[in-house]
Amino acid sequence: MVDLTKNYFELFELPVSCQVDQQQLSSQYRALQRAVHPDRFAGDGERQQRLSVQYASHVNEAFNTLKQPLKRAIYLLKIAGRDVDMERNTIMDPQFLMEQMALREALSDIRSHANPEQELERLVDRVDHDLDTYLKQFEGFWEAGEELDLDQAETVVRKMQFMVKLAAELEQLESELLDG
């Protein structure tokens, strides 16, 4: 069965790293899913079936965390004893906040733009570029591993959280524009 005391990287037999071999992750995920799938324990006792559901849920959560760069970065910080709590720590670089306000304004103006699809694409490209940049910054700070670097890594993760939320809103707007 699944050892719930292992961290997600250990569970999937991956090195603790910012970069994850997506093929190995997917392969290990399928193997773990087969091993813990509740259908395999349909004839067993109720306790074993409940454990199987718990194990399957744990495997799914671990997979989704390691698959997505932002969730993986937050998890890496958690392993290092850091808690990236946006509710608790709202201090943010004023320049970044100004950029966020400008991006939010651009998002709200897309519908009234002469060519909304083109403007949307431009904004999506900008957000994707910024996310890539933040991910590289995080990797550098994480790999350095010093206390001050981990502080910087936390700050970068908070910025990534803003950008991921904006990317989701852009995706929603794109869907609305295509439907409407």
From TrEMBL:
Keywords associated with the record: Chaperone
GO BP terms, alphabetized: [2Fe-2S] cluster assembly; protein complex oligomerization; protein folding
Gene Ontology cellular component annotations, sorted alphabetically: iron-sulfur cluster transfer complex
GO MF: ATPase activator activity; protein-folding chaperone binding
One Pfam family this sequence matches: HSCB_C
Residues annotated as domain J: 7-79
This protein's record includes keyword Chaperone: yes
Domain of life of the native organism: Bacteria
Family named by the database record: Belongs to the HscB family.
Subunit structure: Interacts with HscA and stimulates its ATPase activity.
Function recorded in the entry: Co-chaperone involved in the maturation of iron-sulfur cluster-containing proteins. Seems to help targeting proteins to be folded toward HscA.
Name assigned to this protein: Co-chaperone protein HscB homolog
Record organism: Endozoicomonas elysicola
Gene: hscB
